[in-house]
Amino acid sequence: MALFVAFVCIVSWASTRACSYGNGGVPTVVHLYGSVHPPQSDGSAFAWFTAGFGETGLAWSTPTYTYPNTQSPDVLWYHNHALGLTRANLLGAYVIRNSAVDAPLGLPCGDEFDRVLMLADRSFYADGSIYMNYTGDNPNIHPQWQPEYFGEAITVNGKAWPFLAIARRRYRFRIINTSNASFFNLSLTNDLPFTVVGSDTNYLSKPITATSLLVSVAETFDVVIDFSESTTSEAELVNMALYSYMDGNAPNDLNGKVMKFVISPAKAKDESSVPVKLLDYLDVAEEEAVQRRYIMMCRVWSCHVAGVLCHGV
Ligand SMILES: [Cu+2]
């Protein structure tokens, strides 16, 4: 399957010595988080291309990306990984379904009761358009290159502080932290717990109940919330994570609230359930490993380029 994503540039990226881009359009390359796919389809920050493949990055190799979709079903997500542009994200959820695995579990299903919540942090101008810093943090560094992005307000599926009308029943929410550098520590104001059934592209072996969820950057949590247990007719999903995490300020009016649920009586019987067990996984014994590999995560700074190269901020 080929996936092409249009990209709207909201960050200045004029060519400079520090900038590896030309002037033939906005660089784009898709990275699909958690996907099992050939390395040519991974979306390296240097595999970018412009419209019509007029210009391509050093690591570009193919116009078509292939995603086999043969892995365990759950939620993945994708965004533009072109070096220096990731914070100006166009992004989306990518749900892999397999009815042979999903259906026997009996979890809430269908578009109404199984929903994706893509969380992000964004800053806005007074007219509602997205604000991006065009001047940078350091006059010696081109403003395209910024180590991290922090927005003032939290958005869900692209909207700041939305509400969702729901019924008193179970819902499945696939929560994704799509922000560039912010963590979210989520809880509900009516004290309902989250029943976690999956995280980071896989079902858990059995559900875990939690009253708060710490969701780090790019992490996903697949949860069920049973609103039939709510003692209130409204509930806010709120954020308690320090901004920035872990040594920043306590959340404020802008980044402390995420979204609101408005709860109405259920119109039909809730046939969904949460099983005691989810999926069985093979135990992998460390002593059976045939090769030991070391993976280095590096953060590179220089006088010309400041950035996290492994993420293409
Ligand atoms: Cu990324």
TrEMBL record:
Its cofactor is Cu cation. GO terms for biological process: cellular response to phosphate starvation. It comes from the Eukaryota. Residues 157-229 form the Plastocyanin-like domain. SUPFAM superfamilies: Cupredoxins. Residues 1-18 form the signal peptide. The keyword Glycoprotein applies. Multicopper oxidase that may play a role in the maintenance of inorganic phosphate homeostasis. This is Plastocyanin-like domain-containing protein. It comes from Oryza meyeriana var. granulata.
